[in-house]
Design a protein that fits this description.
mainly alpha; about 5% strand; three-stranded antiparallel beta sheet; binds coenzyme A; single chain
Length: about 425
């Protein structure tokens, strides 16, 4: 008898089956052999919202939610945040190893040379209303790049793929900055290839009439660290969308737009925007206890708290808290920080939150820093989408190279009517 296996007895038939256990999972397809007769389709698994289903094998990101561990390609997130630049981490996520010095120079060069967007794409952006949400503009413009680079649909050509990866990582800050300038009615600023990734982004956001933009190095580094923290998070909602759309072999621009659309939801990347709204609604530190009591009474959720995977302090939230300190030394304190700290203090001592293992997640503090850096809440999810593009692309590439993957197509349990006769309209009653 194989040791690393399940021995299943089907009580309907008394038949028994040995199902191998592979890396602490059973293959759902192994259950298909469990049938009551020749006509039976075979047993399926039912797992709404993928609570207990691995949809792929991945070597990119490791999370241990109970212990609060996050690693990219084996490296702890705090070491990467402390010692690397975002583009170095992007290379690591995509290619599996940290770059050598010459690899990093080439990589930066490749990304930097794809920061411009076509003038027609710029005009496309101009078509949005003055008050369009930046995330809607971002998603649509990334999708529109698909029309500019039709060769990108050739997803099985590794060289073509790499070219689109350079383009996407290079262009997403430009598109993001243009959505911001559009919402202010300011002229767009072209990329400056002398600058680093975060600095150039800041240049495109905030340069006015000065001949050369000089970013504050503390703020540029804080933004780069935020980018590192948001670069990948294994099989989250938007990454699952990236893989699912990619599995139909859509081009990477369309896949990225679809993933960004998922990210825009308030339960995913939109949460940091909601955190700031919540802090504004609370208004002052003394109103925190009443707000928490209201949540416990079942009125809404504490935004920026709780996570599907982390049942411990989100390791990214710790680093963000540290980065917030650096930023506030330069910009002065954001008054919302006081409310946030009080919320965290009370919630972490409260039975309701302790029992449910609800801790601050990455979004709890990121919005406060973004605001201190000068961003409006509408921009927050766009700021998340820039670095997450790297994670999406790494996961997309891994999916395409995985011989086990096919077009993603779940099953369902049908709960509708059995076959019934068509009813003509005059017989359907009033
Ligand atoms: C992230 C999130 C969607 C995870 O959801 P999930 O894994 O499906 O967790 P559940 O919704 O099953 O929550 C389990 C319990 O905790 C409660 N809960 C979860 N998050 C909560 C929050 N932020 N505030 C208050 N209660 C919360 C749920 O009501 C539920 O309570 P119950 O068992 O009494 O019904 C959820 O925690 C949430 O909506 N958080 C706020 C939004 C947010 O910050 N998102 C960013 C994620 S990075």
């Amino acid at each position: 008898m194989e040791k690393n296996a399940l021995n299943i007895v089907d009580e309907r038939t008394q038949a028994s089956y040995v199902i191998p256990i592979y890396k602490r999972t059973v293959r759902a397809m192994d259950l298909r052999q469990i049938k009551t007769g020749a006509e039976d389709f075979g047993l399926m698994t039912y797992d709404p919202a993928f609570l207990n289903t691995a949809s792929c094998q991945s070597a990119i990101t490791y999370i241990d939610g109970d212990k609060g561990i996050l690693r990219y390609r084996g490296y702890p997130i705090d070491q990467l945040a402390e010692k690397c630049t975002f583009l170095e981490v992007a290379y690591l996520l995509l290619f599996g190893e940290l770059p050598t010095e010459s690899q990093l120079i080439d990589w930066i060069d490749n990304i930097t040379h794809h920061t411009m967007i076509h003038e027609t794409t710029k005009r496309f952006l101009e078509g949005f209303r003055y008050n369009a949400h930046p995330m809607g503009m971002f998603i649509s413009t990334v999708a529109a790049l698909s029309t500019v680079y039709p060769e990108s649909r050739n997803v099985h050509d590794a060289e073509v793929r790499l070219h689109q990866i350079h383009r996407l990582i290079g262009k997403v800050p430009t598109i993001a900055a243009y959505t911001y300038r559009h919402s202010l009615g300011f002229p767009y600023v072209y990329p400056d290839n002398d600058l680093g990734y975060a600095e150039n982004f800041m240049n495109m956001l905030w340069k006015m009439v000065e001949p050369k933009y000089h970013a504050n190095p503390v703020l540029a580094r804080a933004l780069d660290i935020l980018f590192i923290l948001h670069a990948d998070h294994e099989q989250n909602c938007s990454t699952n969308v990236m893989r699912a759309v990619g599995s139909a072999q859509a081009d990477p621009f369309l896949c990225t737009a679809a993933a960004a659309a998922a990210l825009s939801g308030p339960l995913h990347g939109g949460a940091n925007e909601e955190v700031l709204r919540m802090l504004a609604e609370i208004g002052s530190k003394d109103r925190v206890p009443a707000y928490i009591a209201n949540i416990k009474a079942g009125h809404g959720k504490l935004m920026g708290f709780g996570h599907r995977v982390y049942k411990n302090y989100d390791p990214r939230a710790k680093i963000i808290k540290w980065a917030a300190d650096q930023v506030f030394q330069t910009t002065g304190k954001n008054p919302k920080l006081e409310i946030a700290l009080e919320l965290e203090r009370i919630a972490l001592e409260d039975d309701y939150f302790i029992k449910r293992k609800l801790y601050p997640n990455v979004d709890f503090y990121s919005g406060i820093i973004y605001q201190a850096l000068g961003f409006k809440p509408e921009m927050f999810t766009v700021l998340f989408a820039i670095p997450r593009t790297v994670g999406w692309l790494a996961q997309w590439q891994e999916m395409l190279e995985d011989p086990e993957q096919k077009i993603a197509r779940p099953r369902q349990i049908y709960t509708g009517h059995d076959a019934r006769e068509f009813v003509p309209i005059e017989k359907r009653g009033v």
